[in-house]
Specification:
single chain, mainly beta
């Protein structure tokens, strides 16, 4: 373990934090760090550089113990830096078109300017217009993920104005956390809640008093966490999907697709459930993307086989009005194993395979033509990995993929660049 890994591990242990944790990273120049497939070139981020948490255009955010960094040349050099004590626990970040950076630790969210000379904590605004604060931790409770997201795209052009929006993937190996959709319409000046799921007894303390329960007590729609949030400009509507599994809790299903309309004049949201389903279904999904008015998604179907004889898996697309009607879904790829993440940029689909279930070690599916043809690869030299948070290509054409070990532990950053 080198000095950087020692301080990272020590910081996590001291803080009592569980995830996403940081694993020792392979040495520069180790066999398998770079290579190519028929469809793309690939390379790992340098092991002695910062952890690259996000990118947009030529800019990227780097973190290491006690410091955050900004690059303006596609992670080649880091021209700006700032002290930040909890840097190793940054697990959500997004650049805005106005140059600001939004980033979050497990329970706090921040806004920074273009050169990191000004960083301020943001207090989230709740549905009632009042300050929204994370729940009070019990003694020994592991903090959960209030802001972590599986998606790699969080900003959308809505009628000429950028909206930042995402949902938190939570309740995985930590204490209970409410599932929320967050948004900003003012360039990161404020962060507000667009939707709150209800109180799920499976993800609250068993002896919690009503005032201690996390989640919206007035919403009967419950889930474990949110898989994806996206926007359809054709409808001017947002979509979100949730998971995760079937539980005998008397609270209904956890896998939902929601459709939301935003009233910019009133700064209000109207969300409706489009479909709810059990876990062994294509509606237990992730990686939602809209292209030319059609929705594309990957199925994360799992759960007891007693619900259905076979798993309802694959990569699908349909018109939004046909979402509830499976007979009108077009199967683009007949996946044998569940998948949870997909990023579509222009006509290119990048789909990391889910290492915990898939026999592939580090599997990546790509399609350069919106599902007409596919390349299916396993980069075994990287070990058992699952890709999440796939950022669109930077100015040099490199997609950023965050590789996870055991799904919740940060492992390496992989870059892939599609061949012409």
């Amino acid at each position: 373990m080198n000095r950087r890994q020692f301080f990272t591990a020590s910081s996590l242990a001291t803080a009592g934090l569980l995830a996403p944790s940081v694993l020792p990273r392979r040495a520069i120049g180790e066999d398998g760090d770079t290579g190519e497939t028929e469809h793309f070139h690939y390379r790992l981020a340098p092991a002695d550089g910062p952890w690259i948490d996000t990118q947009r255009g030529s800019r990227s955010l780097g973190t290491r113990e006690g410091k955050i960094y900004l690059s303006e040349d596609n992670s080649k050099t880091w021209v700006h830096e700032a002290d930040f004590a909890d840097a190793v626990n940054i697990h959500f970040s997004s650049f805005l078109e106005n140059g600001r950076l939004i980033f979050a630790t497990q329970r706090k969210i921040y806004s920074a300017n273009e050169d990191l000379s000004e960083i301020r904590e943001i207090t989230v605004t709740g549905l009632d217009g009042k300050p929204y604060h994370p729940h009070k931790l019990r003694e020994g409770e592991k903090p959960g993920w209030y802001f972590y997201s599986l998606d790699g795209i969080h900003t959308f052009d809505v009628k000429g104005k950028e909206i930042l929006i995402w949902g938190n993937y939570c309740n995985v190996g930590t204490g209970p956390v409410p599932s929320n959709v967050y948004y900003s319409v003012d360039g990161g000046e404020t962060i507000k809640i667009a939707y709150e799921f209800g109180q799920n007894p499976a993800f609250n303390h068993k002896d919690a008093k009503p005032e201690e329960m996390v989640g919206n007590p007035d919403n009967p729609v419950v889930c474990r966490h949110i898989h994806s949030v996206t926007y359809n400009p054709v409808e001017d509507a947002f979509y979100a999907c949730s998971g995760d599994i079937d539980r005998k809790i008397g609270m209904g299903l956890e896998c939902h697709w929601l459709r939301g309309k935003y009233d910019a004049d009133a700064d209000t949201w109207d969300w409706k459930v489009v479909v709810s389903s059990d876990a062994n279904s294509r509606f237990k999904t992730g990686g939602m993307n809209f292209v030319d008015g059609k929705i594309y998604w990957v199925a994360d179907a799992n759960g007891p086989k007693t619900i259905r004889e076979v798993y309802d898996r694959g990569i699908f697309r349909c018109k939004p009005e046909d979402i509830p009607d499976k007979s009108k879904h077009e199967l683009l790829f007949p996946a044998k194993w569940e998948m949870a993440v997909m990023t579509i940029h222009e006509n290119t689909m990048v789909v990391p395979r889910y290492g915990n279930a898939d026999p592939a070690d580090c599997g990546i599916l790509v399609s350069p033509d919106l599902g007409k043809t596919w390349g299916n690869y396993d980069l075994k030299q990287f070990g058992d990995r699952s890709g999440v948070r796939v950022n669109p290509p930077n100015d040099e054409g490199w997609y950023r993929i965050q590789l996870m070990e055991r799904w919740i532990n940060n492992a390496e950053i992989l870059f892939i660049k599609m061949k012409s």
